Amino acid sequence: QVQLVESGGDSVQAGGSLRLSCATSGFPHTMFSMAWFRQAPGKEREGVAALYEATSTTRYADSVRGRFTVSQNNAKNTLYLQMDNLKPEDTAVYYCAADRLFRPLANPALYTYWGQGTQVTVSS
């Protein structure tokens, strides 16, 4: 059974930092694409950061580039999102997602596996 379990969401003040974790298990195949998405109330789900382990590449949304860092542990079963210099507009539910093929960050519908999400709230 595939499981993706996010943790680390919290309420912080603007300028603060958080580190989200996504513990994964049960994948039937090696996942090519691992990513973080977020969804704010009344808005569409948007891509935040992606890691393509096989090619050692990362992708970031323009709105978070330079502030967020996506990484993976050595065992490749936990995905992280280090979020620094947080802004109120970063407030959202953050989800991790995975797929066995290359999936662009711009199209969340292509990702097969999803976690339940963790809430991040940034106050001004």
Q: Secondary-structure map with pairings?
A:
Elements: E1 3-7, E2 11-13, E3 18-25, E4 33-39, E5 46-52, E6 57-60, E7 68-72, E8 78-83, E9 92-99, E10 113-114, E11 118-123
Parallel strand pairs: 2-11
Antiparallel strand pairs: 1-3, 3-8, 4-5, 4-9, 5-6, 7-8, 9-10, 9-11
Fold and architecture overview:
The protein has no helices and 11 strands. The chain has strands at residues 3-7, 11-13, 18-25, 33-39, 46-52, 57-60, 68-72, 78-83, 92-99, 113-114, 118-123. Strands 2, 4, 5, 6, 9, 10 and 11 form a 7-stranded mixed beta sheet that branches. A 4-stranded antiparallel beta sheet has the order 1-3-8-7, with no helix packed on it. Strand 4 (33-39) and strand 5 (46-52) form a beta hairpin. 31% of the residues are buried. The model has no long low-confidence stretch (mean pLDDT 96).
Portion in helices: under 10%
C-alpha Rg, in Å? 13 Å
Strand content: over 45%
Q: What is the typical, i.e. mean, pLDDT?
A: 96
Stretches where pLDDT is under 50 for at least 5 consecutive residues are none
Shape: globular
* Count, helices: 0
Compressed to H and E, one letter per element, the order equals EEEEEEEEEEE
Which structural class do the helices and strands define?
A: mainly beta
For the termini, the CA-CA separation is 40 Å
> How many E strands?
11
